[in-house]
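User: I'll paste a sequence; please echo it back and then give the predicted structure.

Assistant: Echoing your sequence first, then the prediction.
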Amino acid sequence: MIFLDTSAIYPLTDQNDTDHEEAHRIFGRIVEERTPLLTHNYVVVEAMALIQRRLGLAAAIHFENSTRNFEMVWVDQEIHREAVLRWAKGRRTLSFVDALSFTVMKRHQTDTAFAFDSDFVAAGFNVLTAAPRR
């Protein structure tokens, strides 16, 4: 199972993003290998907002429709509180959504993320991208 982050979702959606080709190459390999993708509803909300703001409502709706292909963790109060504790102990620049992602990954014993976000590497996870940048 591979965790799917907003930092990979956006370049998959935006053909003009500098990481678009690499994101599609990696995504194609994930699909070909039939590796399940895991994410959570906070990532979906974050990605939808980013896509809508930059690419428009139709692109955001198209992405939301694709989420049925992922294993979705719906964040409840317990997961949220655990992520708050992780976030509060973290670096000043760590986003809450990333802290929540790390919590979900730990709970699901997933050590690999499809992400272009260096915070995943800093937290000790493997990433499928050549060089996380964001």
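Helices lie at 6-13, 20-32, 41-55, 57-66, 77-89, 96-107, 118-122. The chain has a mean pLDDT of 93.
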